Automatic annotation (TrEMBL):
Keywords: Ligase, Membrane, Transmembrane, Transmembrane helix. This is O-antigen ligase domain-containing protein. InterPro entries: O-antigen_ligase-rel_domated (IPR007016), WaaL-like (IPR051533). PANTHER family: O-ANTIGEN LIGASE (PTHR37422:SF17), TEICHURONIC ACID BIOSYNTHESIS PROTEIN TUAE (PTHR37422). Residues 196-333 form the O-antigen ligase-related domain. It is found in: Membrane. It comes from the Bacteria. Its main location: membrane. One of its GO terms (cellular component) is membrane. The chain crosses the membrane at residues 15-36, 43-62, 74-92, 104-122, 134-152, 164-185, 197-223, 230-247, 324-343, 355-372, 378-399. It is a multi-pass membrane protein. Pfam families: Wzy_C (PF04932). GO terms for molecular function: ligase activity.
């Protein structure tokens, strides 16, 4: 449902769909707590990732009492996407119990991504639907953001081109890991074709920040999966990337791709640097920030005259630093570090080749989301925030499944509490 959330609104399904999503997440979490209490098994709350997520959620909930906050309503609307959605981590951690379920999740992910890519091709070569045309012409500010040199940026079934682009990169990373793993040849060929569709569709979005994610993920991929074949592949990919960055072209999508690797020549990047420099004194003097929701959309709506309401964060990290302070930024960075450390450690502990591949893919996905969160707010939109929680949960799930496979006659078979 998170994947097609904005498509539902475009086809005329009105109503508080976002609130319904929040309600479903809360109900699922309550179900997990009831089951955990019945089993007297609270291990899912004790792992390193679980611990830091609970601390992060707790810190965001305590922000309701932030003395520098201009609006409690802004906190109420913001905490849903920043903290509450992370409760889905525990839902995934508890309910994903078999490798068959893991495979089903990845098949659904790749299938939905393929649908989104094909829809973007339709927008690019056939045109927008009547509903989409009405949306694009409803506000001149929309054209200012989405119309570049007479060419509309495509957003497929998502809320905006940025969210669409990021949701094309992540399944591409999964495809690369599976292609490099020990899988059947026909699966690699199919996924190779799908990856080409994802990446081409990503260019339709005109999102420069997305263009650096795959090279960044491949860099970590080459480090974690170090061998001669990977080095050759990485070298070839590097040469091809240099060629794409420097090749002369009149294609607007490729031109925008090239500017992503020359940020100092980009006016928008320069403006962001100026804004970030301007807000630094505020961050340094407000350790707990100006309150959740103080910037951006909710700041304009609930505290229009405040100092932070006019500040465009333009970055997930800047938003955390401004709204939650340097204390919140430290917690957030610690959470990302804990996830990556767990993923890397589990990757080298896992014996099963298939589960090892899935662990590598989810580690790279979290790493890519971390990079994406610097130029944009990558972790507050559906479905990226749900995928982020799922990827974090799978880091622990696949390691647990590997232990179960290697020791089938131990705790898993004796119905003892599962340790997460």
């Amino acid at each position: 449902m998170a994947y097609v959330l904005f498509l539902l609104t475009r086809i005329g399904l009105n109503g508080p769909i976002g609130l319904i999503m929040d309600g479903l997440q809360v109900l699922l979490m309550i179900g997990v707590l009831i089951r955990a209490k019945a089993e007297q098994n609270w291990h899912l709350m004790r792992g390193p990732i679980s611990t830091i997520i609970l601390i992060w959620i707790g810190y965001n909930l305590l922000q309701v009492g932030n003395p520098w906050a201009e609006s409690r309503m802004a906190w109420l609307y913001s905490v849903r996407g920043v903290a509450i959605v992370l409760l889905s981590y525990f839902v995934f951690l508890y309910n994903i119990r078999t490798i068959q379920m893991v495979r089903l999740i990845f098949k659904m992910w790749l299938g939905l991504a393929l649908f989104a890519a094909i829809y973007a091709y339709k927008q690019e070569y056939i045109g927008f639907s009547a509903v989409e045309e009405a949306y694009l012409n409803s506000d001149p500010a929309i054209a200012g953001l989405l119309l570049i040199a007479g060419h509309w940026r495509k957003f497929s079934i998502f809320s905006d081109p940025v969210s669409f682009a990021y949701n094309m990169v992540m399944p591409s990373i999964l495809c690369i890991c599976i292609i490099a793993g020990k899988f059947k040849l026909w699966k690699k060929i199919v996924l190779g074709g799908a990856m080409c569709l994802y990446l081409q569709a990503m260019l339709f979005s005109g999102t420069r920040g997305a263009n650096v994610l795959l090279p960044a993920a491949l860099f970590l991929f080459a480090i974690m999966k170090y061998n001669k074949k990977v080095l050759v592949f990485a070298a070839c990919a590097g040469v091809f990337l240099v060629f794409l960055i420097n090749v002369p072209t009149n294609d607007p999508n490729l031109l925008r791709f090239q500017t992503a690797f020359r940020p100092n020549k980009d006016d928008s990047y320069t403006a962001r640097k100026v804004n970030q420099k301007r807000i630094q004194p505020f961050i340094q003097t407000h350790p707990f920030g100006g309150g959740l929701g103080a910037t951006g959309q909710w700041g304009h709506r609930f505290a229009p005259g405040s100092y932070l309401a006019g500040f465009p964060p333009d970055s997930g990290y800047m938003r955390v630093a401004v709204e939650l302070g340097w204390v919140g930024l430290l917690l957030f960075c610690t959470m990302i570090f804990t996830m990556l450390k767990t993923g890397i450690n589990n990757y080298y502990k896992i014996h099963d080749p298939e589960l090892k591949t899935y662990c590598l893919a989810m580690t790279l996905v979290i790493f890519a989301y971390n990079i994406a969160n610097f130029p944009q707010e990558a972790l507050v939109q559906f479905p990226s925030n749900v995928y982020f929680s799922m990827a974090a949960a799978l880091l622990t799930v696949v390691y647990r499944l590997d232990r179960q496979k290697r020791r089938p006659n131990e705790a898993f078979q004796r119905q003892e509490p599962i340790k997460y």
